[in-house]
Design goal:
heterodimer, A: alpha/beta, Rossmann fold, 6-stranded mixed sheet, 4-stranded antiparallel sheet, 7 helices, 27% strand, globular, B: alpha+beta, 2 domains, 10-stranded mixed sheet, two-stranded antiparallel sheet
């Protein structure tokens, strides 16, 4: 895995004055207001806060899955608030690696094929894709399970396949939404070790949404959200 | 593009719904292709009956041989006209024929219907495509014998070899079966010209003259000569055109078949749409994940359309395959032009099967379109939150 993109000191993530409102039955529901956040290359940020505080909404804005009501979101040099749907899809495939709470693997594809999926969107040859998949599965320690289907894997293993899928395209930013939320303590610990390794060894920039303080302390920075407002920013070891 | 194996394996995993949709689509295609094969068989029987160089000469104003009459003297003059092709022995390929229509009982108490009995000379056999005796023997003139096709023998009383057909209280013994490449000739009973006119007590009567022209130029000249000669008072008709008129009967079958096919197809489209809606609903999180990792809306749309297409294509192929045992199976209907029974065989050639496959593909694409649109209209975040 390389770390070649955006090495010019520009922030990987720059969120300025972002507000996000949802509309339901003519009622406006403010979710985020006045959010400012910057992440540099190699940062590892944990987003914490109670349910409904806007953690996942902020993560979705940074990942290009949603657009802010106002303010700007620039990620990997790309302004996301006005980019078209199709451009965003292409951009996500190049720059973002996703880790979901419920893994979201495709049940009818093997571990190998799941990891290969985002690579089919690139111009890599079949041989190159295979090399990338094998490398990613080796990083997560699942080379021997490459031909297993998700149903044949434990929750922890599924999440590791999901991490391998997230890193297969060598993205600039990894976004993780409650990556340990569905795992037992032992598996959760393994996943957090793995994410720490991705950050430390491969200098991956990571944003992780979590409820779990034990998971949050593994990040380099922790940001607390309350009722859609950033209330506290701490560095690891300061909690 | 989403890899095709994603769709193929999903169909395999949901094998019960897949099987039900495939069988449903297959039945629709099977029923429709059977109708198309029926119409094509009838078309073929009439199409093959007409040789491009053959002419049928009848009385001016007669629509068919049954209502026509030609004088013996005129028939002899026509046989001597220049431009008529000859056989190996130099005999002109010109056959004087007498046609009579009798009402006869069908086998298995299936009522009565009109039967064409044709009296003709030996040369008339050379004017029918691939005439061959397949069982028994040909008729001997003067002893009231007749031949017919196997199909007719199976459909009518008294037409099997050894049985006797009564024509105007004269009994004609069936002595053989013939084939003529599935043409309309196989829907007739043939006997000797003189034996038939004798039995009908119309010794000098002729209905028509069938002849083959030497070439296209001779045909044009003969057509003009026969039509323009006031002395003959006859009309010469291009044989393929004569049978084309009779094909109007098959267009009714076709029309009814297509109307049924359209309604069945619409029903099958709903079945395909239902299956695909269920597929989309149960795979919302997968769709969300695929879109999150970078697959475009277009890719997802095409992926679900492909799945629906595949589902119906399987049904279509199954339906087409299931019609093949009926290929060549003989049946019959009323020829609207002659008001007599015409026998023909189901034909499932490439064009008929292609129509079935096109039907299936249309079901898949139209039936899959709305579920596929639903799949791409789901917001990614909502899709990812589906349980």
């Amino acid at each position: 895995m390389s770390e070649a993109h955006l090495d010019n000191g520009e922030p990987v993530v720059a969120v300025h004055d972002v507000c996000k409102e949802f509309y339901r039955d003519a009622i406006t529901i403010p979710v985020l207001s006045g959010i400012n956040l910057e992440l540099k290359r190699g940062d590892y940020l944990a987003l914490m806060g109670p349910s409904g505080s806007g953690k996942s909404t902020l993560l979705n804005l940074v990942a290009g899955l949603d657009r802010p009501t106002s303010g700007t979101v620039t990620v990997c040099g790309q302004s996301l608030e006005s980019t078209s749907e199709s451009k965003l899809a292409r951009w996500r495939s190049r720059h973002i690696g996703f880790i979901f709470q419920l893994y979201n693997l495709i049940p009818v594809l093997t571990a190998f094929e799941n990891v290969e999926l985002p690579l089919t969107l690139t111009s890599l040859s079949r041989r190159e894709r295979r090399e990338h998949v094998e490398a990613a599965l080796q990083v997560v320690g699942l080379s021997d399970r490459s031909h297993h289907y998700p149903r044949q894997l434990s929750g922890g293993q599924e999440q590791r396949v999901s991490i391998a899928r997230a890193i297969a395209t060598d993205p600039t930013l990894i976004v993780a939404d409650e990556p340990t939320g569905d795992l037992d303590a032992k598996s959760a610990g393994e996943i957090l070790d793995l994410m720490e390794r991705l950050n430390r060894e491969f200098h991956k920039t990571i944003i992780m949404v979590t409820h779990d303080p034990d998971a949050a302390v593994r990040a380099k920075q922790i940001v607390h959200l309350q009722k859609g407002v950033l209330v506290e920013k701490t560095h690891a070891g300061q909690e | 593009m989403v890899p095709a194996k994603y769709n193929v394996r999903n169909l395999r995993v949901r094998w019960v719904t897949t099987l039900m949709t495939v069988v449903g689509t297959g039945l629709v295609v099977w029923a429709s292709v059977l109708t198309f094969g029926l119409a094509d068989g009838l078309d073929h029987a009439l199409r093959i009956s007409g040789d491009p160089l053959d002419l049928i000469v009848m009385r001016k104003g007669a629509n068919d041989e049954g209502s026509s009459n030609v004088e013996q003297k005129v028939a002899k003059e026509i046989a001597n006209l220049d431009g008529i092709a000859t056989d190996k022995s130099g005999q002109p390929l010109c056959s004087s024929e007498f046609v009579t229509i009798l009402t006869k009982p069908r086998r298995h108490n299936a009522g009565t219907t009109n039967l064409i009995v044709r009296g003709l000379q030996d040369v008339g056999r050379s004017l029918r495509p691939e005439f061959t005796i397949v069982r028994g023997r040909d008729v001997r003139p003067g002893v009231n014998e007749a031949i017919t096709s196997v199909n007719m023998a199976e459909r009518f009383e008294n037409l099997a070899i050894g049985e006797k057909l009564e024509i105007n209280k004269v009994l004609f013994e069936i002595v053989g079966y013939f084939e003529a490449a599935g043409s309309s000739a196989e829907s007739e009973v043939w006997t000797d010209l003189r034996d038939l006119t004798g039995a009908r007590r119309q010794a000098e009567a002729l209905s028509s003259i069938n002849l083959r022209c030497r070439d296209e130029a001779a045909k044009t000249a003969l057509l003009k000569r026969l039509r323009d000669d006031e002395q003959f008072k006859l009309d010469a008709i291009d044989e393929p055109k004569y049978f084309e008129k009779q094909m109007e009967a098959s267009s009714t079958i076709k029309y009814v078949g297509y109307v049924i096919a359209v309604f069945l197809t619409m029903g099958a489209m709903f079945a395909a749409a239902n299956t695909m809606y269920a597929a989309v609903a149960s795979r919302s999180r997968e769709i969300g994940a695929l879109r999150a990792i970078g697959f475009s809306r277009r890719s997802i749309l095409l992926s679900f359309l492909f799945e629906s297409f595949l589902l119906c294509l399987l049904g279509g192929l199954l339906g087409c395959l299931a019609t093949l045992p009926f290929h060549g199976l003989s049946t019959g209907t009323m020829n609207g032009a002659t008001f007599s029974e015409i026998t023909f065989a189901f034909r499932f050639g490439p064009s008929v099967l292609l129509q079935g496959v096109i039907m299936a593909v249309t079901m898949g694409l139209v039936g899959g379109l709305f579920p596929a649109i639903r799949a791409i209209r789901m917001p990614i975040i909502s899709a990812l939150r589906e349980t």
